Structures are given as structure tokens and as C-alpha cells.
Amino acid sequence: MLAALAMTAAAPVWAEAPAPVAVSDTVVDTLSERLFPMLGALGRLPTATFDTRARRIAACGDVPACVIEATIWTDQDRAMVVASLSKSGARPKSNADLPVAAGIDQELEALNVVLRVYGLGLPGRYPKIDGPIFATDTPFFADSVKVAIDTARAASDAPPSTIAASVRLAVALLDANDATAATRFEPLDQRENAGARTRAARTDWKAFRYSLLIVPGVGPEDVGTTLSPRSKLHALLAAQRYRQGLAPFILVSGSAVHPRGTRFVEAVEIRRALVERYGIPADRVILEPYARHTTTNLRNATRRMVALGIPLDRPTLIVTDAEQSKYIESQTFTDRNRTELGYLPGAVGRRLSVYDLEFQPSRLSLRHDPRDPLDP
Length: 376
Fold this sequence. Notes:
This protein has 15 helices and six strands. The protein is an alpha/beta fold.
């Protein structure tokens, strides 16, 4: 009897399984809000709505590929979400140009894209720059998916069939593959662009021919190079135009995109060159570190202008190498904008030189369009 008591008393306090405790994850929270703002606002719709979906996921057990496939939102699932939305009275904030139901459906499709590309290894819209870290035919890929599923379940007590659980799984897959660049610099305008924001509030815009010099980045061809020769040319040209007094600010745009797997952010490296090599004041260089394509270089530039209080009723000047400048002026680029963004981010104006092209930004660029979920 005494021995039994002694054994009981000696039992460690952690012998029982610990109860789950919710912890805040700034990367996950910020990424979820940025990529899936409307889905996050829905919270948990009634789980009874998704009984069929729940059974489908449960039938997979612990088989990662099956769980991912079962988690994808089918047309029937998505129709149930819209129906439940109308019954619940939930009204997540939507883009003024997009009905709530259409916005929810677009975000569900964006969520499906993440599940397919990073959970099943299927090619995405941009296979050269998007996709899992590990080759899909290796055990490392399957293990990374399993760990992402475990992570999502450990971090959330939401039933696997719900929207909340699906968003958490999609973000866990992105996190497992270091595909979190969409939030790396947040809050961008309170940190990286704080000085420019203060300057913009005191700027006499009429004193300048252009409100902004827009400088797109072009990535190098190897992961060890910080700044490509073309981006170095862009920095030189921008410094010259700034010293001429053409605009009060230089906006540098480009994420960590080319080549796939690079750790260097194009905009950051161009800004470094402008400040360190050419002596441009840091608070005159606006960072836009999220654009992954030329289309979103221009779209995101407009978004930063609005966020920093830079007027849109004055022209900007795109400063880039001759090849990219010619491409921006082409019908091919116009068609690509309409296909990928659904609109033109602005109007291309006069050409001043092989390097310089006027550009009038459009407020259409403020629209949220999750068709490319990694470039919101």
C-alpha cells in the first residue's frame, strides 16, 4: 500500500496528455488575413452543413495525399458555403466591384490551388517559380505534407471539414515550403516605408513632373547572386532620374522570385544599391517587395501610392531596361494583364527614351483578386 502511494506521489506532473492551448502565430495570422481575408471573416459556418465533406476527410485516415484531395472544396461544397452564408447572415467585407458570394468562391478556388500545388505536387500557374521545396517523387515531399497536416490540426481545434481548418492547412503547406513571402515585410508602411510616408505628407506634388519613378526588378539566374545586371542598370537609371528632379520618390518593386528558391528580394537589393551606391536618401525609396510578375509590379505600385498618400491623378515614370520597357508597351503585356488580373492596372503613356515610359495608374489596381493566391 505504501509502495503504491509512493509510486503515485512520484509520478511526474506531465504524465497526463497536456490539453491543447491556442497560441498566436504572427506568420500564420498575417498570411491567412492577406491571402484569404473573406474566408477568415466567415469564422465557422455550421459544421452540419459539411457532413458529407467530413466523412470524406475522415475516411482518409492518416494518408496525406488522400487527406489533401478530400479537403479540396468541390463545386458541391462551394455551393453549400454560399447557401450557408445566406442563412447565417454573415456579411464578410468584399471588394466593391465583386459580390460577396463571388469573392468567397474565388478565395475557395485560391485555397484549392494551394492544396493542389503544395499538397499534391500538381503544377501551378507559374511552375518555374511556384511549387514545393522537395521533388514530389521523393519521401521528403510526402513527409512534408504529413507534417503540414499535423501542424494544422495541432494549431486549430476546428473540425477538418470547416473553412477555418482548410485555411489553416493551406497556410501550413505554404509555411512548410517557405512560401510565406507575401507577408514577410508586414506591416510594410509602418516599418519599411514609414519615412517615405512622412515625407509624402509634406510633398508639393506640383513641383515635380512625375509623382513617382517605378523601378521593376529582374531576378538573376542563380540563387547566389543578389542583384542581376539588369536590376543594377535599373538602379543606375533611377538614380539619374531622381537626381534630375523628375520625381520626389523612387518605388522599387519585386519579390524573391527568380530563380526559384532564391532568398534575395529584388526590391530590397535595388533599394540597397540606390542608398549605398548612389546616396539616395532611404526615405525617398519606397519598398514594394511582393510583386512576382511585371503585371503586379505596376498593380502593387498603385497600391503603395494610395497607402502612402501619393496622388493618382498625376503620371508616373516607369524606369527599366529597354527590353522590359518595350514589353510593357506591347499588346502582349496588355493581353496578359486582362487575362491574369482581369483589368489594366493603368494606362501606358508617352515614351521618353528606350528606358523611360510614362504610366498613369488606375484605381482598379485596388481590387482584391485571389486568382494567384501567392500574389494577392
